[in-house]
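Re: folding output
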Amino acid sequence: TALGEPSPRLAAPVSSEEGKVLHWLTDGPRHVDEIARMAELPVAVVSSALQMLELKGRVRGAGPMVYEVRA
């Protein structure tokens, strides 16, 4: 991309579930179970959202079932 333009991966839209998951990752890495509890979402929904966010380049694994926002 041209200098100053956002990367297409970073500009990818997020679903409402993905947005909730991102919200709970803003303070640092969290375990999938912790995100599910805080976001009041089933673990399966959180896991799916995290997989999509990983594909979009928004989050990355930071340990076993722990995720963080990509810098």
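--- second protein (sequence, then structure) ---
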Amino acid sequence: DSFLLSPMPNEPSSDARESAQSLLGRLKLRHLRLILALSEAHTAAAVAERFHVSPAAVSKALGEVEDIVGT
């Protein structure tokens, strides 16, 4: 019951929503799969083996993610 009475968290600003929508519009499913696989496998070589691609392909895709998110 206390959950129903607690105030709702602040809504994100319109700039934050637009930024998130832009980010999601540019990230592709393969990028998200790569991020998940890296979080599980911890190395590009292991991810490359899992997806039957070269480590260079994993590195390139990770570079794309970095460009998209700005890191």
